[in-house]
Amino acid sequence: MLDSGLSSRTVQYTHAVLRRAMKQAVRWGMIPRNPCDDTEPPKFQREEIRSLDREQTRRLLQAAEGDRLQGLYILAVHTGMRPGELAALRWDDVDLEAASVQVKRALADGKFSSPKRVLKAVGV
Predict the structure, then answer these.
(1) What is the pTM assigned to this prediction?
(2) Residues 85-97: pLDDT tens digits?
(3) CA angle, corner 87, sides to 44 and 122, nearest 5?
(4) How many domains does the chain have?
(5) What is the tens place of the pLDDT at every residue in 17-27?
(6) In what helix (H) or strand (E) does residue 15 lie, and over which residues does it extend?
(7) What pLDDT, on the 0 to 100 scale, is given for residue 36?
(8) Contacts of 34 (CB under 8 A, 6+ apart)
(9) Do 74 and 118 share a domain, yes or no?
(10) In whole angstroms, how large is the CA radius of gyration of the chain?
(11) Beta carbons within 10 angstroms of residue 61's beta carbon
């Protein structure tokens, strides 16, 4: 599967599904043992996040001009906030006089939770 170009994560998911199916087949007496127990799925390798370079950032902000979410794009570019942190912002998290933003919560799976990190961005 990896040789055909699929990601290691896709192969892991496939292995997990097959392993569960084979486990059920063993329980039902259809096969004597689970063949997936003799295999090892590939290790998940996260790709390193590549940030935008100066030219890409300029083009993004230029394309966002006039968009109703322009301020959100500017904030994302200048602070590095995660999408869930940006989505959970409230006006009381923003201090316009001090030009600062505090991350107090994050939105994940439709629920608010504590952010992965505490961030106070100043001068944004």
Answers:
(1) 0.56
(2) 999 999 998 888 8
(3) 100
(4) 2
(5) 999 999 999 99
(6) helix 8-27
(7) 93
(8) 19, 22, 23, 25, 26
(9) yes
(10) 23
(11) 15
Here the CATH number for the domain that contains residue 31 is: 1.10.150.130
Cβ neighbours for 65, distance < 8 A, ≥ 6 positions apart: none
Identity of the residue numbered 58: R
pLDDT in tens, 49-61: 788 999 999 999 9
Q: Are residues 34 and 77 in the same domain?
A: no
- In angstroms, the first-to-last Cα distance of the chain is 45
Whether 22 contacts 32, CB under 8 Å:
no
The structure tokens listed for 102 are 């505090």
Mean pLDDT, the chain, whole residue set: 88
Report the percentage of the chain scoring pLDDT > 90: 47
Q: Is 52 within 8 Å of 73 (Cβ atoms)? A: no
